[in-house]
Design brief:
CATH superfamily: P-loop containing nucleotide triphosphate hydrolases
Radius of gyration: 18 Å
Bound molecules: adenosine-5'-triphosphate
Shape: globular
Strand order of the largest sheet: 6-7-8-3-9
GO molecular function: ATP binding; ATP hydrolysis activity; lyase activity
Structural class: alpha/beta
Largest sheet: 5 strands, parallel
Protein name: Phosphonate C-P lyase system protein PhnL
Keywords: ATP-binding, Lyase, Nucleotide-binding
Helix content: 25-40%
Number of strands: 9
Order of helices and strands: EEEHEEHEHHHEHEHE
Number of helices: 7
Family: Belongs to the ABC transporter superfamily.
CATH architecture: 3-Layer(aba) Sandwich
Length: 234
Amino acid sequence: MPVPLIVSDVAKSFTMHLRGGIEIPVVDRVDFAIETGRCAVLGGPSGIGKSSILKMLYGNYAIDRGQVLVRHHGAVVDLAVADPRQILAIRRDTIGYVSQFLRAVPRVSALDVAAEPLVQRGADPASARARAADLFARLNLPEKLWDLPPATFSGGEQQRVNIARGFITDHPVLLLDEPTASLDAANRAVVAQMIEEKKDAGVALLGIFHDAELRDRVADRIIDVSAFAARRAA
Ligand SMILES: Nc1ncnc2c1ncn2[C@@H]1O[C@H](COP(=O)(O)OP(=O)(O)OP(=O)(O)O)[C@@H](O)[C@H]1O
């Protein structure tokens, strides 16, 4: 079976250092796999641990227990024990991530922000910028903004730069954390189409979507995170 990422018996707690170091368990015994050409969606109520799972899969949060096995350049890497250099290489070539918020770098134009992941992978900067421009046009980002740094853009404009940046590469795994939270219906439809194109290209997607219409359109499967909720102290 084409499985680029397997999550096995994963647990995560947060330690509250400002509250005497108490441990707050969030998820426990998380087990699932994602498949090529499919979009799985993390479901469950607010605060159950959906974003925390995505952040562990992208190496943003440490994994307390269990394994996250990723197929990377033909080898299998366990993200739970990967070193920072391996995590950076996995982000460059294997796992893409679109978060809700753009981390804007001062003085870098929107086109260069979106083109950067391709340039990091060795693409010619001019063709990477042309590809970013195509995505901006599809996402209806006004052309007058393309050469400006996105720091002062509206929430929805920044989100479209972020989506272009996340979708510009052909990473085999793509994680989506509420990628359309600030978008209008027309642009949400564009993103739905872009997700469908990724599926057709054989990408394995895992997302969080609060927008039910988008979720129903793109989801092949819902993974109910409530099933992995850690038992919390009252
Ligand atoms: N960095 C952190 N430090 C401490 N607690 C955290 C941290 N990140 C998340 N949490 C806690 O972990 C729990 C799960 O949060 P998470 O953001 O994963 O939930 P979610 O299901 O994505 O919620 P929502 O749907 O509201 O975005 C929450 O109780 C949250 O307060």
